[in-house]
Protein 1
Amino acid sequence: MHANLIGGEWVTGPTVRENLNPSDLGELVGVYAQADAVQARQAIAAASDARHAWAHAGIQRRAIALDFIGAELLRRQQDLGTLLAREEGKTLAEAVAEVARAGHIFKFFAGEALRQRGDKLASVRPEIEVDITREPVGVVGIITPWNFPMAIPAWKIAPALAYGNTVVFKPADLVPGSAWALAEIISRSGLPAGVFNLVMGRGGVVGQAMIESPSVAAISFTGSVETGHRLLATAAQRRAKVQLEMGGKNPLLVLNDADLDTAVDCAIQGAYFSTGQRCTASSRFIVEKGIYPRFVQRMQEQLATLQVGHALRPDTQIGPVADAAQLRQDLDYVAIGRDEGARLVFGGEALQRDTEGYFMRPALFADAAPAMRIAQEEIFGPVACAIPADNYEHALDIANASPFGLTAGICTSSLRHAAHFKRHAQAGMVMVNVPTAGVDYHVPFGGSKGSSYGAREQGSYAAEFFTTVKTAYTKA
Ligand SMILES: NC(=O)C1=CN([C@@H]2O[C@H](COP(=O)(O)OP(=O)(O)OC[C@H]3O[C@@H](n4cnc5c(N)ncnc54)[C@H](OP(=O)(O)O)[C@@H]3O)[C@@H](O)[C@H]2O)C=CC1
Ligand SMILES: O=C(O)CCC(=O)C(=O)O
């Protein structure tokens, strides 16, 4: 039984959750405590009690702790990756890479802890100096989704601690295993009791308590648009700082002058790897007419080579969908696309394998219209559509006609079009001849329009959310 970490103590909850393997529903990954609202409030109180001491504990101490966590994640990437693949369903290779990414993130923020920058300016008044410094915001509530059970917690927890905040972490209910393993490492990193707290439990209970608590100064959330909006409405009433990363409907433009191998590679990786369960996934291929038939043909051929199966099998390229509800959503969208008149040219059906799991053959629709639901709504699974475009300008208009703006990609050999796209794509992240998904860990992450709210995550830009600015005037 895996307990919650509250105020430096491992405490069991009033209920438990059985964590099942989506590649093999007969396999129990582990049993995890589920906190109630009372325990959530205890964790918040512990983080609140610890916040002043931690804010002044010094940057060396923060750097040592973060470096310890990063080093252990990197050392144990194989076994923690296996755990992650077992509970979430991404392939072992993807899961090991995710743990390594989390390790690098902690290492990066160990360095950032030492680089607390400020400004010194002259005053407009004589004999006065102005110092501008950054201070921690206090208790940070971290609410994460199931699709990156290690990397997303890492890129929120590491900067929170690096900039001197205390943390209450609520992972997604579906993936407590990676969260608990990460918390266990953090518990041995030398942080004072209460600086980091793990509260596994339901979003509507534990998450809600965090959103409502006046002691939680800032909330960093990744997940669905619906939950993000609800969270913001509540937290804004008490003027908490909020950062939301939500959905995407990311376009990949393929122009006539694109290298076809590169375009197909970007499309396959971007849309279907990690079973399409990435907010950065490409789900709309917007393809110029001159290359469209060849692109669709090559995509069908490539899709036919992909091995769908148990996440731990060495030959698997596409693991199972994360759970029954997500599989239902994916299959429903396949039916919606058919009803809307798009042409299903590959996959789209549930698959049987040796073990009982949520397997699905990746789906590709051709001849989709930009206004169709499959071209407008986030599906969050291995389902994508190809939309023909008359020319680059037409493709750009289609790409931008979306409520989302997380990533946008283009495959082209034209410098002119690539440069134009970087300036005019309505997205927080733009990719030229690289997949829309799979980003670096040391540069900003976030979107425009309905995809994101608040300051950017990751890299040194994370300071914006996890600190508050103080301006001091001194007359000697
Ligand atoms: N942008 C992204 O990266 C992601 C997008 N999604 C999208 O969201 C859809 C649904 O996925 P789902 O996991 O249900 O996403 P949710 O937005 O419901 O879950 C994200 C996190 O928020 C928590 N949460 C849920 N309700 C509340 C609440 N009232 N107060 C505070 N926290 C809450 C969840 O907890 P709990 O797990 O206990 O419910 C989880 O930790 C997907 O199909 C996909 O379209 C999903 C995951 C990631
Ligand atoms: O594409 C990536 O590397 C990150 C994706 C992500 O953050 C997400 O899907 O939530």
Protein 2
Amino acid sequence: MNEWLNYDQFDRATWHSFFPSERVLLSQANLDEIKSLNDQISIADVQEVYLPLIKLLQLQYQNYQQMHLQKMTFLKKSNRRVPYIIGIAGSVAVGKSTSARLLQILLHKLMPDLRVELITTDGFLYPNAELKKRGLMDRKGFPESYDMDKLLAFLNDVKAGEAEVMAPTYSHSVYDVLLDQPQIIKEPDILIVEGINVLQLPSKQPLFVSDFFDFSVYVDADAKLIEQWYLERFGLLLDTAFQDPSNYYYSYAQGDRQAAFDMARDVWQRIDLPNLNEYILPTRNRADIILHKTTNHKIDRIYLRED
Ligand SMILES: Nc1ncnc2c1ncn2[C@@H]1O[C@H](COP(=O)(O)OP(=O)(O)O)[C@@H](O)[C@H]1O
Ligand SMILES: CC(C)(COP(=O)(O)O)[C@@H](O)C(=O)NCCC(=O)O
């Protein structure tokens, strides 16, 4: 079966024409905020690809709230705010968290009155101690390495309108879950949930994580490019680890740089690449939109699911 059957495909110029840049002028403060996130981010991508996507999301969000109000009126129930949840999927190191932060900044720009929160499912990985106990250290990121019940309960509580919901957090430099630093999510209007596993089907649970999503994005690129981005990120992790003995990568940063990169290349080949091929890529055609990247993270094609 043609996996693109249900998608409209657009090149950048066509996609941009749906919402020309002049409609939202980014201030210097906006640009500074984006550049502080990552100074390599292309502002052309932001204006030509992300702003039309944000406009589409704004329309979907408004529709969603209207539908919800009509339903509550029909059921003679009082209306309450129900968070709109956006999932962002894709390989390790494809740029999910960078895209998620961009969406958060731009959604806030277009709808300044809304509270937009962002979490990553990395926090729902079992802690390293538990992964070791289960013999799963080399399976980090694979479906069995996540506490899916905890993630589903978290999403359920957010959707149910709980005043405060705790999300565990993860640090790449500690290489573990930060059990003492949970993130507190307080009644968001929009919640972005970013992670490699957000479009996966559960093995035991009766619910999918994506059952909670109102819109989903898959960030896509050729595996060879993603490996390069993985290694570039590893280089940045090494640079920051250099003077910090508590950093997971400290000993690699102190030792031979070539050997450190050989180790990272091996981890990519043994763990993250098979995970991409076996468990992440097969979820691509569940997304509402696929952002396809080429060299230098430039988005060259956009696939939008047909209704
Ligand atoms: N749009 C972008 N432009 C330039 N570099 C980017 C962009 N998106 C991601 N990167 C870089 O690629 C690497 C992986 O991105 P990251 O957001 O950490 O990926 P993920 O969350 O998917 O693991 C990081 O070094 C990040 O700085
Ligand atoms: C924590 C992760 C599963 C998730 O990755 P992310 O999407 O945040 O890049 C990944 O970064 C990871 O640690 N994978 C295990 C093998 C490795 O060290 O790359």
